[in-house]
Amino acid sequence: MVGTGKPLSGQVVDYTEQRLGRIHRTPLLYTAARCGEQLLVTWRPLQSTAEMMTIDAQFIASMGWGTGTCSPEGDLVGGAQPDPPRRRAHAVVPGAVVRRAAAGRPDGVLRVLTSVLAGEEPAWTRIRFVVLGEVRTLDLLGRPATGTDGRAWALNLVARDLTPQIRSRRRLAETERETDLLRRQTEAERRIADTLREAILPTHSEALAAVGLTVAASYRPAEPDAAVGGDWYKCRLLPDGRVLVAIGDASGHGLEAVARMAQQRHALAGLAQTGASAGEITTWLNELVCSDPTGQTATVVVGHLDDEKVLHWADAGHPAPLLLRDGRAEPLEAKQRGPLLGALPGYAYETSSTPLRPGDLLVLYTDGMVEHRGEDVTVGIARLADAVAASSLLEPREVIDALLADPGIAGHEDDACVLGIRVD
Predict the structure, then answer these.
(1) pTM across the whole model
(2) Helical H runs in 273-390?
(3) Which partner from 81, 224, 348, 406 sits 20 to 30 angstroms from 162, CA to CA?
(4) DSSP state, 23?
(5) Tens of pLDDT along 40-88?
(6) DSSP 8-state code for residue 149
(7) What is the C-alpha to C-alpha distance for residues 118 and 114, in angstroms, rounded to an integer?
(8) Helix (H, G, I), strand (E, B), or coil: what is residue 124?
(9) Alpha-carbon span 297 to 347, nearest angstrom
(10) Distance of CA 91 to CAs 110, 146, 147, 151, 156, Å?
């Protein structure tokens, strides 16, 4: 009590003393409160076991009750059994009662006293007041005790402390508001991700078929509830007659990774309009990622297919595409494999060239298709190449569907993109 400053009321303590050579045990009811710098303690003996049970019941139910009598002047006096009714036949003045009984919150007590004296059944009100900086909430229920002349000479009041329930409801409401906010944020992120997912899907237009290519692609997020991640791909016919082929992976997760993915993909689309080589485009992309203040990296394969169906491509830390030819699938050999985007500013990426033949299937993919925890990535690449070779008689769309249906490949822990391009 001294440490918290809160008064102590109704504390039962067993008191033992020696009287006339015998030990006497008496339960005492203690009340204590601070009085300036001192401590005021009062106690009285409990009259019976029933009174002890009453105290416990009040504590368990957060309830209290008491009586008040009215003096001839109309003041409310809390105490024990009142005097006979004949001495309390004077009219009760609610204002005077309130001034003495509840100077802190007279309006609430006034309502219940007024309703009690008016004979309402039941006479009830709810009041709030501040105790040691905390708002307490009490329900008051009153009933008058009247004399033979019909006038009230005492008031019986029951008070229930609702503060714990109000506090719990407040915490529950706050939790519900936070949950609703998170739900709305999640829905907003989902809508954004859905829009971005539609943006990264390549357009399988008739223009690609007109230049002798059959294209199929698929994107699978690692989390079923996510619509898009940091992986992306692009395949489109450029104004100069070349076909832009690219696949990449922006590091990180969530909307931040999605934002970097969108930035890199749109930057590639703009740079591809310049007619620059794959190595030059990759070099410029590297400078873009190096300027990102977050310090995040990315991987990418950028390539062009010319009229002769020669793939001119550059690699920035990304798994090399697989080439399916004559029933065998092997990774392409690059003239030079450069570092991750964002890892080495000023680095100049070189362009490698790989001639393709009619019937060849080029498979580009992200590391989510080949990386498994505790396993070297070369093992995953070899497994993917074997699966591609086993599907050599299928159409590009069927090849990708077969890869994603394979639990040894599709059971990835990261986002995964697959892009298949067949030379017809």
Answers:
(1) 0.57
(2) 278-290, 377-390
(3) 81
(4) E
(5) 888 877 766 666 666 666 666 666 665 555 444 434 433 333 333 333 3
(6) T
(7) 6
(8) strand
(9) 14
(10) 16, 11, 12, 7, 17
SS3 376: coil
Count Cβ atoms below 10 Å from residue 205 Cβ, excluding itself. 12
Q: Measured between alpha carbons, how far is 109 from 100 in angstroms, rounded to an integer?
A: 11
Residue 231, CA distances (Å) to 161, 193, 257, 416 in order: 58, 12, 9, 7
Q: Residue 82's pLDDT is what? A: 35
Identify the DSSP state of 240: T
- Whether residue 300 is predicted with pLDDT greater than 80 in this model: the reply is yes
The helix or strand, by DSSP H or E, that contains position 3, with its residue range, turns out to be none
pLDDT > 90 fraction of the chain, expressed in percent and rounded:
34
Q: For residue 330, with 0-12 CB atoms within 10 Å meaning exposed, 13-18 middle and 19 or more buried, which class applies?
A: middle
Does 112 have pLDDT greater than 90? no
Dist. CA 86–CA 148, nearest whole Å: 8
**337, 385 Cβ separation under 8 angstroms:** no
Q: What is the dihedral of CA 63, 64, 70, 75, to 10 degrees?
A: -80
pLDDT the model gives residue 230: 82
Residue labelled with tokens 């491509």: 313
Rounded distance between C-alpha atoms, residue 385 and residue 270, angstroms: 32
Give me 373's structure tokens. Answer: 């925890």
Amino acid in the structure at residue 96: A
Cα(410)–Cα(404) distance, rounded to whole angstroms?
5
Q: For the residues of 276-321, what is the DSSP string, one character each? A: --HHHHHHHHHHHHHT-TT---EEEEEEEE-TT-EEEEEEES-PPP
292: exposed, middle or buried (Cβ count in 10 Å: 0-12, 13-18, 19+): middle
- Are 252 and 296 in contact by the 8 Å Cβ rule? The answer is yes
**Nearest-10 Cα torsion for 184, 259, 362, 307:** 130
Residue 128 pairs in a beta bridge with: 137
The backbone region for 43, taken as left when phi is positive above 0, alpha when psi lies in -120 to 50, beta otherwise, is beta
